[in-house]
Amino acid sequence: MNVYEAIATRRDVRAEFTGAPVADDVLTRVLGAAHAAPSVGHSQPWDFVLVRDRATRTRFHGHVTAERATYAASLPPERASTFEAIRVEGVLDATLGVVVTHDPDRGGPQVLGRHTIDDAGLYSTCLAIQNLWLAATAEGLGVGWVSFYREPFLRDLLGIPAGVRPVAWLCVGPVSHLHDRPDLERHGWRERRPLADAVHHEKYGS
Fold this sequence. Notes:
The longest helix is centred in the N-terminal third of the chain and has 20 residues, at 54-73. 40% of the residues lie in helices and 14% in strands. The chain is of the alpha+beta class and 206 residues long. The chain has a four-stranded antiparallel β-sheet, with helices on both faces.
């Protein structure tokens, strides 16, 4: 699978995980791809916490379920109806969770390239996540980014030091299949924006 095929095939997986094991060498390649991401000042501000323990995942799943309910309650009726059919996580179905963290102090105190854009460090961690996602897709694995959580909860759950941000809980594992269209399109939440609408020439809005 070339990079364009991986980009086109990649999906945010929720319900398709099989729970089958992931070979150690495959997981090492996927994490290696993430760790090879570019980073501001070569700071490599990311870490990867591998979560297989069922009890830990069950606690996190309960937290995510409660946050999903809170969000659903905030929606107007028509959006709540659409949201009801949308699954937001595969925490217990995936083979493992990979929690990607961001340490803003890594590579400091002088991080070359962060002088004017401090968030460049966080951008670097997001690049590592994208590398992981594309590599996992090329290996035939699914990835689902869980975002329905409070950072303090996940920090406490995994013993993440103060000041280090848990940026993503990624559900990772073999899948039965990948859909042709993203879930949010299939369920009618939002359609994909055309590329032409996102391209500007010389100035924004041109």
